[in-house]
Amino acid sequence: MKKKDSLCQCGSKLLSAKCCLPFIREEANPPTPEALMRSRYTAYALQEEAYLLNTWAENNRPTPPLLEQQEETLKWINLKIIRSSATTDAGIVEFVATYKVNGKAYKLHEVSNFQKVNGQWYYTDGTVAE
């Protein structure tokens, strides 16, 4: 029996196979900054370091390992997109990501910047909102 596909972790209410997984598996490219943001959130939740690094703008890309610093007790809970906009080659996504560490909930509120290079969107940097 085939395992039933679950809802995507990004909160889109779509099945993961129809949402972020094709991007993470490099079967397709995210068409918008918001799609890239959602897939990167899902990649963090699934600890898909290679995808995170591959979708980070080369001039700002951290040196691996990236997720080694992520605590084993960290669990990503929810993603809420506040706003998203894009031109042909730049975009922003403001979001709030909720996560738990040792059972205690925290929120990351960030405005992320994206750049399109050779037809592909990349995360460039972000500013944490207070």
From TrEMBL:
<dbReference type="InterPro" id="IPR032710">
    <property type="entry name" value="NTF2-like_dom_sf"/>
</dbReference>
<dbReference type="Pfam" id="PF17775">
    <property type="entry name" value="YchJ_M-like"/>
</dbReference>
<protein>
    <recommendedName>
        <fullName>YchJ-like middle NTF2-like domain-containing protein</fullName>
    </recommendedName>
</protein>
<feature type="domain" description="YchJ-like middle NTF2-like">
    <location>
        <begin position="32"/>
        <end position="126"/>
    </location>
</feature>
<dbReference type="InterPro" id="IPR048469">
    <property type="entry name" value="YchJ-like_M"/>
</dbReference>
